[in-house]
Amino acid sequence: MKKITVNENGRLLTFLKTHFSPKFSTRDLHFSLDHNRCRVNGKIERFASSSLKKGEVVSFFPVKPPQFSLDPPRVLFEDSHLLLYNKPPGISSPDLAKKLGFLLVHRLDRDTTGLFLLAKTPQAQERLQDLFRQRRCVKEYVAFVEGTPTSTGLFKGKMEIASRREGAVKWKVTSSPKGLFSQTSWESLESKKNTSLLLCRPLTGRTHQIRVHLSHIGHPILGDVDYGKKDPPPRFFRPHLHAYSLLFPHPFTQENLSIQTPPPEDFLENITSLGYRYSFT
Q1: Catalytic residue at 109?
Q2: pLDDT digits (tens, 9 = 90+) for 62-92
Q3: CATH 3.40.50.620 fits 2-60, yes or no
Q4: What kind and span of H or E run contains 163?
Q5: Which of 28, 79, 95, 109 is flagged as catalytic?
Q6: Taking the domains of the chain in order of start, what are their residue ranges?
Q7: Spatial separation of the C-alpha atoms in residues 270 and 276, rounded to whole Å
Q8: Residues of the chain scoring pLDDT < 50
Q9: How far is CA 276 from CA 51, 146, 225, 264, in A?
Q10: ∠121-124-125 over CA atoms, to 5°?
């Protein structure tokens, strides 16, 4: 991250172009802004058109949009029916399926990383989606959260839409009889400095379920500006939620497939910086 003091009034994008071009293109700068990588006087700023005043301090950590390929280490399992892909942050599930040229089976949030299952044929897609509906796919996520929850736990509750804004939907826990039933279990892997590393298992498949449940019990995911603090710690540019493990029967051979993949580098760097020693290998 680079900190720069503003010398004259102006627009944020103009300022960033002056200090970070040509190494980073305008597209790169917009992508970085969209992904919470810019702070002005310590507060996240996403809008390229925002005004800067002399004396303000801009902290910026630019990145380029992720690249997608069908080569290892991204491809974790592949046969003629399906593909398990290690999803990077910064792209929606439908967009990733389209880029890779396969069929969508389930969804991960845009900034959630990890195991992402795709089908190669309509028949495989139908069978895999049936497995999810029948809850025969066991999913486990690693979440890095605020505070220290109980060593194990189970949250049950109903969810409903809290707000819609510019195409983005936020959810909340509700007592309304019209709410959608949801439940998530967790196990604490390690705790340090008022943070915890949790292994979460969603027992239902509601949108944003783990994020909403953990926020509701007072332990929001670090970096989650939608359900947690609006100004997370530096270098927490996205929710630290990773699809770690998937266990399911192959839709054609019935062989039990069990695949795991460790969190990405930025996730591991942040937990290591706080003294965590948990190993995902």
Answers
A1: yes
A2: 999 887 778 888 999 999 999 999 999 999 9
A3: no
A4: strand 152-165
A5: 109
A6: 2-60, 75-273
A7: 9
A8: none
A9: 39, 14, 23, 15
A10: 85
